[in-house]
Amino acid sequence: MEISTAAIWESLKTIPDPEIPAVSIVDLGIVRNVEFNDDQLKITITPTYSGCPAFSFMKEEIIRHLESAGIFNYQIDTSLAPPWTTDWMSDSVKAKLKEAGIAPPSHKVECPQCESQNVDVISEFGSTACKALYKCNECSEIFHHFKQI
Amino acid sequence: MATDLLYKYVLGLGDDALILGQRLSQWAYKGPFLEEDIALSNISLDMFGRANLFLEYATILKGNGTSADELAFKRNEREFRNHILCEQPNGNFADTMVRQFFLDAFYKLFLQKLTESKDEQLSAIAQKSIKETTYHLRHSSKWIIRLGDGTPESHAKVQPAINNLWMFTNELFEMNEIDHEMVKQKIGVDCQPLKMEWDKIMDEVFTEATLKKPENIHMTTGGREGIHTEHLGHLLSDMQYLQRAYPDAQW
Predict the structure, then answer these.
(1) Is there a contact between A47 and B139 if contact means CB atoms under 8 Å apart?
(2) Contacts of A123 in chain B (CB under 8 A)
(3) Inter-residue contact B40 to B123 (CB < 8 Å)
(4) Structure ipTM
(5) One domain for residues A64 and A117
(6) pLDDT tens digits for B163-208?
(7) Which of B122, B201, B205, B227 could, after both became Cys, cross-link B117 (CB 3.0–4.6 A)?
(8) Which residues of chain A are within 8 Å of residue B35 when distances are taken between CB atoms?
(9) What percent of chain B has pLDDT over 70?
(10) Cα distances (Å, whole numbers) of residue B26 to A131, B79, B89, B235
């Protein structure tokens, strides 16, 4: 096995979140660990929400990436603890979300267009489990907020 | 033998999530308005995710090659161990929200304790689920307040919903032999002390919602022993139809 774990991390960084393509599954903190046990590659992933329908899709994408890189001796484990939290997102990832029109996780929700904090919740549940729907009272933008958990 | 008790314990927790998730999914495309339709589907999805975690763990404990899907789709009514409250019909929106509020409040307290379980997997599932349930409780308690302190019509729907579903709430705090054994092993949760805290949540929300807490209501029980109301059979016949008619069918 000539491939390094660093190269695998790089490859996983190219897998977008199927529902928020602006960020990768590594950006979101879904990939927890990549290591070799002897010749076997072990990847540990964690779900954002326990019922996230994108989770099994992400796993399939990881497998597709590994196999197209010629890696067939692998194991993909799901870990639940510690539970996934939005604190695992770096500032640069939060900036990417904002760029895509999604307010990044924060206790002070800010309109991603005009940065006003004069916003109201429309619905605490959005188009995916991880998002809530808001509206900006300044610029009238309707936007998603990536829920802080 | 000890594993068998833990298996049944985990099965009960998985069945609660599965049956409630199935009920909530029946609201899809029938919600009172789009955002609420999406909210109910989201909560349903969280429940199915939780059911999957518990039932997958149950299959590991069982260790006979049974899959989580088989547990969901191929058991009969009497083999389900969910609390009776979870299987109660959706009724009108107030009925659904009251059922949700009762269960969210209970599960918030229950899961908080379960995070301390000596069983690592149960603790992990609890740590994951508590965040979701806290969010669900915020949603359902807001609705109880809006409905209770809303229009005369919404008030007139939510109070009977509370009165009708109250009889299923005592079961949540009952302790059977399995529960006692699990508490002894520091795996499970002692539900009786949770009752006082749950009552406190009820009192706070009911007061704000101008609703009355029912008194002297006959309490029913039996879910954890597989004794259910007539509604579970109907729910299962719908949920299990495909796997019963076309066993092991895949997408």
Answers:
(1) no
(2) 35-36, 38-39
(3) no
(4) 0.84
(5) no
(6) 999 999 999 999 999 999 999 999 999 999 999 999 999 999 999 9
(7) B122
(8) 122-123, 125, 133
(9) 99
(10) 22, 22, 10, 10
Using CA atoms, how far apart are residues B167 and B165, in angstroms rounded to an integer? 5
Q: C-alpha angle with apex B46: B42 to B49, nearest 5 degrees?
A: 135
| C-beta atoms of A124 and B127 within 8 A | no
Of B35, B44, B129, the CB nearest to A50: B129
Look at domain B2-245 and name its CATH class: mainly alpha
Structural domain spans, chain B: 2-245
* Confidence band for A127, pLDDT divided at 50, 70 and 90: confident
pTM: 0.92
Residues in chain A: 149
Closest-CA distance of chain B to residue A76, Å: 16
CB contact under 8 A, B132 and A83: no
- How is residue A21 written in tokens? 């393509």
* pLDDT band, residue B16 (cuts 50/70/90): very high
The number of domains in chain A is: 2
Nearest residue of A to residue B131 by CA position?
Answer: A149
Q: Is the pLDDT of residue B2 over 80?
A: no
